[in-house]
Structures are given as C-alpha cells and as structure tokens.
Amino acid sequence: MSQIIKVCMIGAGRVGKLHSGTLRRYIPGGEVVALVDTQQPMLDETGTEFGIEDRFLSLEEALEISEFDAVITTTPTPSHKFLAVMAAQAGKHIFLEKPMAMDLVECDEIIEACKKKGTHLQLGFMRHFDPDFELAYERIQNGEIGEPMLVKSLTHGPGLPPPWARDLKTSNGNLAEVNSHDLDATRWLMGSNPERIYVEVANFKGPERGVDTENYYDNMIASLKFESGGLGSISGVCPCDYGYDARMEIIGKKGIMIIGELKNNALTVGIDRDTGLVTPIFRRWPDRFEMAYIREIEHFIQSIQNDTTPIVTGVDGRWAVAGVLAGTRSLLDERPVMFNEVM
Question: What share of the chain is helix, strand, coil (3-state, %, to 5)?
Fold first, then answer.
C-alpha cells in the first residue's frame, strides 16, 4: 500500500478550499493535516469545513508543531518565494499555485532551494491535466496537424480581481493573475520557447467600478513570436461578466486543433418564443477545469509517492513569469520586447 502523503495547506481562501476539498473527496493517497492562514476567521472557517484540526497563523509555527510531507501554497504571489523556500529548506515537497513568483530571481531561488534539498516542485498549471488539453497535446505530438504554425489562446474571467491583484507593484497585474495559464499553454502546445512579445491593453470597466489603480487594465491582447518561427496571440478580459471562458486554437501545416468551447454542456433549453434557446455557460473557473484540478493534485501526490519528477516544473513556471515580465515591459514601453531582455 502506498504511503499516505500528509499535506499542509497554505492559504485558507477559495483555492485553498478547492484543493482541500479535492484531497478529502478524491485523493485517498493524500490528507490535509495542517492549515495555515494569517486571517484567523478564514483559518477557522476552512479548518472546520474540512475537518483540519491543526491550524496555524504562520508556516514557521506549522513546521515547528505539525508533521507533514508536503505543502500546497495558494497565497497571493508576493508571498510565494518566502513560503516556498522555507518549505523546501525544511525538506517539504511543494505544489505552488501560479504565478510562480514576482520575478525571475525569486523563481531561481525557489528552484535552487528545492534542488538542494531534493524536494519535488510542481506548478499549478492545471491545463496540462485537463482531458481535452492533454489529448490535444498528444495528438499534436503525434503529428496529426503537422508542425504548429499559429497558436491562439484566451482566458476571460468574470470577477473583478482583488485590490492586490490589480496593482503591478504587488501582483504584476492581470497578465500574471489571469493569463499566466495562456503564457504556459501556448509554449507547451507550440513546443517552442517564446522569443518576443507585444502587448496592448485597455481599461473599459475600471472607472465605473471605482478602480483607480495606476496602470490598471481589464482588456489585454498579446502577440507572440516563438523560437520555432511560430506565431501566437493571447486574449485576456477580466472582468468579462458573461462567465468563465478558456479556449485555444492551434493551426499546423496539415490541420487545426480547437480546444474548449463557450457552452458548459450540450444542453439547450427552449423557454418561450421571446427568450428563445438557452445554453448553459461556465460560471466559474472551478467548473471549467473541475477534472483538471483533481488530476493535478493526484499527480502531485503520486510524484511524491513514486519519487518521480512532476510533468509541470519550476522551469515551466519560470518561463511564464518571464512572459509576464516581458509583456508588462511591452505594455509600459509601448513596444515589442524580446524575452532575452528580461531573462
């Protein structure tokens, strides 16, 4: 029988709740035995909901008192480097939500700390574990559409980001918090590292919703050039209000691959002649990627049990952060930016 992997969940908010629920309901090989959050009410609420008795206001305290094998970090980006390095130095395996860190120096410190202690590091790019995305990758690798020439990706989120996530000083903005997944997935499915990026942004809804943060944007379009010669585009809208939307299109020399669709399922309802036909839409990101979130945590637990390297590593996280940094420089300077300018 495989070892039960004991997990400390760092962050008791919505993502911490998502992963805690996943481990409790679907992953018999893992168990959340400790919970960390700086806010006592949230700590108690989530701890009670998922039956986590060991609750701490800091990771330092958790490491001193509780026994666990791994951490899952779901806190805001500025805290990632500090928490990940501390966990690695304590010999804990790390699942780290995206974005990996605020800059490449922090990424390198995390990677080095894990390498030094021999701990596994997995990034929270769940699209690698979504059945549709995974199948698309396999079929592209098998040459079904030929060499990829053009990739298009979009992520549109319904909610207004929290204040810390809107500010380039504390989060690197929506390009990081919303579109890190696109930066990762375009590189993954194109099979090539990005070489250049050009970003245009706009702010349509900020003023009417009381957002006065400097350089805030709610619409973003990025053009990419890859080392292979391939081209790409990324669209980001947040808040978009109509629902959660994540789709991709890859055009190869022999064909096209389309991943995802706007509607939630194949159900169409006729209500009356005035309303017409109604089709459900994905309301939130946990709905669209429900299976992917389960499979990525299962993969993390199995990587520890089998002592195998996760398929999504710190290198993937670092490339996405590089894309965020190059893209942010592009939008501020209003020019295309080469990745080697930030790496």
Answer: 40, 25, 35
3-state secondary structure of 233: strand
Alpha carbons within 13 A on the beta-carbon side of 229: 5
Cβ burial of 31 (10 Å; 0-12, 13-18, 19+) is middle
Q: Is 115 helix (H, G, I), strand (E, B) or coil?
A: helix
Q: How far is CA 259 from CA 131, 189, 250, in A?
A: 10, 11, 8
> Do residues 297 and 87 make contact, with C-beta atoms less than 8 angstroms apart?
no
Asked if residue 19 lies in contact with residue 72, where contact means CB atoms within 8 angstroms, the answer is: yes
Q: In sequence order, which residues have a C-beta less than 8 Å from that of residue 306 and are 6 or more positions away?
A: none
Task: In whole angstroms, give the CA distance from residue 169 to residue 63.
Answer: 30
User: How far apart, in whole angstroms, are the C-alpha atoms of residue 71 and residue 56?
Assistant: 13
Residue 301 contacts residue 5 (beta carbons within 8 Å): yes
266 CB burial (10 A radius; 0-12, 13-18, 19+): exposed
Strands 194-202 and 245-252 turn out to be unpaired
Dist CA 123 CA 313 (whole Å): 6
Determine the Cα angle at 236 with ends 278 and 277, to 5°. Answer: 5
Mean pLDDT by 10 residues, the chain (343 residues): 91 98 97 98 98 98 98 97 98 98 98 98 98 98 98 96 92 96 98 98 96 96 98 97 96 97 88 88 93 98 98 98 98 98 97
Q: How far apart are the C-alpha atoms of 7 and 94, rounded to whole Å?
A: 10
Beta strand spans in the chain (E): 5-10, 30-36, 54-56, 70-73, 93-96, 121-123, 148-156, 194-202, 219-226, 231-237, 245-252, 256-259, 269-270, 277-278, 337-338
HSE of 321, CA atoms in CB hemisphere, 13 A = 25
